[in-house]
Amino acid sequence: MTDGNERVSYATRKRFWGVASGRVVRHLTIALGLVTVLAPIAWLVLTSLKTGQGVFEPRYVPRDPTLEAYRRVLVEAEFWKAVLNSLVVSSVTTVIVVALAVPAGYAFSRFRFPFDDAIFVGVIFSRLFPPIGIIVPYYQGIAALGLLDTRVGIIVAHIYLWLPLMVYIMRNFFLTVPQAVDEAALVDGCTRLQAFRHVVLPLARPGVAAVCILTFLYSWREFLFAFMISETLSAKPIAVAVYSFVGEVTVNWEELAAAAVVAIIPTMLVVVFFQRYVVSGLTAGALRGR
Amino acid sequence: MTDGPTEVDRAGAGASGAGPATRSLRSRAWWRVHSFVDDHPVLVFLGPALLVVLVVFVYPVVWMVRESLFATMPGLDRQFDPLFNYERMLASASVRRYAEQTLFYSVGSLALSLGGGTVLALAVNRVRNRWLKAAYTTLLLFAWALPLAVVALTWKWVLVARPYGLLNRLLLDLGLVDAPLALLAEADTALWAVTFVDGWLRAPFAMIVVLAGLQSIPGELYDAARVDGATVFQRFRHVTLPYLRPYLAIVVLINWMFAFRAFSIVYPMTEGGPGTATTTLAVEVYRRGMVDLDFGYGAALSVLLVAVSLVVAAVYVRVVLRRIEA
Question: N or C terminus: fewer CB in 10 A for chain A?
């Protein structure tokens, strides 16, 4: 009996120290991670509030914070056009990709058909294919269609970039809806389309939300294709336009910072409000279904 | 009332939530659409997506492979010569150096993102307060969500070799250095710097995947291990790690593969410089194909890059689809 009591108290002591030391280490780790992530962003915001010479002063916080850089970038340099381009490109890409990927993911999750596994593996491969490998054919194809320096050209490239991944993600979400649900609906007299539209799709709504949000974010972030296809502000998204402040010799830092802050605000808002969907989408896109 | 599905048993349709559609089925054309979908579900659901993938992906790939077989140099007549570009590529000493730099970059980035992501996931997973946990995840995800060029340029600004760059400001204020460090301007350190930024960018993804892995571990196992007197380290070694292994494998494959081909960090940060110190294969492909307009050579390099990627992709597919036959 005493033996037992001693063991318990030993275990309790050990547990207490384990928890206490674990908690300190844990919070230090997270704090370090947060500083590493947030410090550059904070530095960017602080820089964007400085003016001309203020950028080069040895200060962290601007002496008199001003929105002058934002006005110059958005109004004088007309970067509001780039923001508009970003919104148009990302939204249209999202609508098209989701409209195509949701039914396709449903098909992969439900039907057996000739070469189904092979086609599915093909979809995964096209998602893992390095886009840098086909920039030249892409550029020439887009040029041949007369779509250089247009939003449509960028949208085409973005559909290529994200459609296969979203098909894969949707398939994984549909796999979490039991096939028996469709069958019950069909037995009740639904057509296939009704079963999909009114029974399965509502159950897979979190997946559709995740795919919408991921596509939007990916499209907003993308650099290579948007950079290659766009030349002027008539097509250039804001995520590419920031790069135009990098000159041959000098960089206009406070204006670059202001443009960059404008470019990151939407992505931050999306992450803040839809974190759950971003996480579930990233997870479903990396792991196997079921 | 011979319109087929309008005969839906109302109670049954209501129970499965299919009610609203019965009205729209009144029209004959609509009924035809429905019966067409019933007859060819795969065609309707999958057809459009596959067609689009064929047009926007498969065609350019075929184009690229074909182009790599033609000898095209600026100022030279284009002719079919399958080995011309590949020989030029393999004979070039610089390609080997770029390959080494790419390897350093991708492995370094992976080490950082995997290590950092795993440690953060272990820490965040143990945070009890749900609200706090969500807040931490959200803030850490910022590194992933930012536009790639913004990430590159922000870090360039942090690392800039002047007293007004953030890093140098901090180091000077803390008295750790006497003169600003030129991390991005020196060949030795530039590759380290871009590698770090790439890892920084990919760490949140690793964290998310590892978190999913940690949540798949049954809590009872830890209790059992605790009762058996296992130390923290033993619990990690014998409970956490075995469960985490497939998730770590996926992070390794995806993060390495994507870092191996990365363009959007290096190019905006350094454009491959100083000199060619940070030129990765992807940057070289861009430079050859889009700047020098040496399409054949660019295509041959691309095929090399693609081949490496596809080998990794094949491993990934095996890991992810192990259960597809079942």
Answer: N
